[in-house]
Amino acid sequence: MHPLADRMRPRALDEVVGQEHLLAPGAPLRLALEAGRVPSLVLWGPPGSGKTTLARLIAQHVQARFLQLSAVMAGVKDLREAVAQAQMERDAKPPRRTVLFIDEIHRFNKAQQDALLPFVEDGTLTLVGATTENPSFELNSALLSRLRVMVLRPLSEDALLTLLRRALTDAERGLGEPADRLPAAWLARIAEAADGDARRALILLETAVELSRAAGEKNDALLEKLIGRGLRRFDKQGEQFYDQISALHKSVRGSDPDAALYWLARMLDGGADPAYLARRLLRMSIEDVGLADPRAQRLCLDAWDSYERLGAPEGELALAVAAVYLAVAPKSNAAYAAFDAARAAVAAHGSLEVPLHLRNAPTRLMKELGYGQGYRYDHDEAGAHAAGQEYLPEALRGTRFYAPTPRGLEARISERLAQLRAAAAGGADGTALPREEANR
Question: Are residues 142 and 25 in the same domain?
């Protein structure tokens, strides 16, 4: 017998749940199907969101021949055979359309993807690809330009509950059980544990029914034993990985410690390398906190070191402490922006000469050429500052790369810079930061 998930595939568009943004009346894919003008497209979504089912329904709706290949197994030879069948259908009397469905299309290499181009272009076949990976990164631009991307969403718990109730009571294709075979709380727990994956939900349902029959009782502990430790959606180095690290970074930047802790916990739960997370936290301390609170960088280094010494799970707490500290710390990207501006100036102005007064003069010849002449030694000046002395090349004189914020320690740095610049203009003296501020 076929698995329950296969038996319960929707047989019509109206049976599909959870993808209303594509299939509800007036939605883009529904409109294309009703008009009979289905373009070649790629279905992008997580496992168990209905990509294969939707491809079959598309072919059925437009009365096309459905051919299916898996990019994991198929090669150019298989593609040629599929194209030959599509050409026969096109040239038949009456002609018939062919929908070629390629599962995991992102696994095709560039040559295999290129082999599809002329036949998609001339309409020999309608290509429907399915992928769990971001098509922007995994499909070459030539093929992607000929495809319309449709994004499938993970199924909500309400959508999964609809599927579970349907599968439980369907006597023809499902389990044919009475609606009260499993408690409503069990169905809700299965929908939660499935984490948006219809296939996983139906596998758990089938096993739960079998266990309840064998045990003769509906024990909640039995269900939890079946479900075990739920696995959240996560793909190391894949789309979800980068989405979640982006969410963590933006939560820290946005000063939300609760969100920062959540995304850190999600990534650790999904199997992200804690050393990678420690490195990213360190980057945030430099990029987003910067000189508003220089202690943040040291704290992140200590958290990284603590994890290396303690390991999991104790060391994960050190990373959590760092994430919270970064989130609540005053923020500044002034040094980051200043360095970018300095690098842009380097790229724009080329190899500008070091001003003569800033050059060392270890030889007589260099002294005769003017190296070091006119240099003022700051420690011999009032306030240990040679006010008005230029340090940039002539072409960049007066350029300001660094603009401190009024937050955290940078507020004091801003005051100090104002004093120095006033002194350079002939105003106030260049007194130093108070000792307690300088040592913070």
Answer: yes
Please say whether the beta carbons of 143 and 65 come within 8 A. no
Sequence-distant (6+) residues with CB within 8 A of 211 are 222, 223, 226
Tell me, yes or no, whether 396 lies in a domain. yes
| CATH number of residue 161's parent domain | 1.10.8
Helix pair angle (184-194, 157-169), 10° resolution: 120
Tokens found for residue 23: 């299939």
Residue 440's pLDDT band (boundaries 50, 70, 90)?
very low
Task: Write out the two tokens for 362.
Answer: 């270890």
62 burial level (CB within 10 Å; 0-12, 13-18, 19+): middle
pTM over 0.85: no
22 three-class SS: helix
The continuous run of DSSP H or E covering 178 comes out as: none
Helices 274-284 and 257-270, packing angle to 10 deg: 150
Question: Residue 34: helix, strand or coil by DSSP?
Answer: helix
Tokens of 298: 């040291």
Task: Say how far apart CA 142 and CA 233 lie, in whole Å.
Answer: 30
Which structure tokens are listed for 128?
């429907």
